[in-house]
Amino acid sequence: MKVSKNVIKKYGAVSYETCLSMLKNLNKISKTNISVSITGIAGPSGGSKEKPVGLVYIGIKKDSKILVKKIPL
User: Into which CATH architecture does domain 5-71 fall?
Assistant: First the structure.
């Protein structure tokens, strides 16, 4: 979803900031009233203490309202 390399480098692919960036850019590209973005670590490996397997960020944008939630395992 055209996430800036700087955002990914600074915060990682699984982060609030990446999910928010995906959400905003998707909304621009699709020109819809509702957009959804999801990023997470599915596993079975690849997690860390700070970002364990099962961590998910879900973003929803409806009109001008934006919500990004961290869903820990």
Answer: Alpha-Beta Complex (3.90)
Q: Are 53 and 45 in contact (CB under 8 A)?
A: yes
- Residues 47 and 27: their CA atoms lie apart, in Å, by 29
Q: Given a cut of 80, is residue 73 above it in pLDDT?
A: no
**Selection from 20, 8, 28, 32 nearest residue 58 by Cα:** 20
CA distances from 33 to 17, 55, 62 (A): 21, 27, 6
CB 59 within 8 A of CB 22: yes
pLDDT digits 0-9 by tens, 16-65: 999 999 998 998 898 888 999 999 999 889 888 889 999 999 999 999 89
Can you count the helices (H) and strands (E) in the chain?
A: 2, 3
State pTM to two decimals.
0.89
